Here is the input.
Amino acid sequence: MNWEQVEGEWKQVKGAVKSKWAKLTDDDMQNVAGKKDNLVGKIQERYGILKDEAEKQVDEWITKLDHKMGAATDKAKNASGQARGDAEIQAGVRGDANRNVKRN
Here is the structure.
């Protein structure tokens, strides 16, 4: 996931940001507005760390978020495929039952 994607999905992502950096306030989150530099600055301010360290944390977080999002996407695809397979099985069972009824 790159920062443009984070910015585009900021409303969905900001909960994960608050989980990672709990010292950030709702006002901070609103002021960040999906901008990486703003997030780095707020982390630096709230946690009293150097800019380089804040940037490192944000970059590591994005990498982990990308893995989580990929896993969630894979999980959703698998669930969707399973549901489709279940529906096909059910349709097949109903089809067999209907054929049996028509033969009698």
Q: What stands out?
A: The domain at 3-103 is CATH 1.10.1470.10 (Protein Yjbj; Chain: A;).
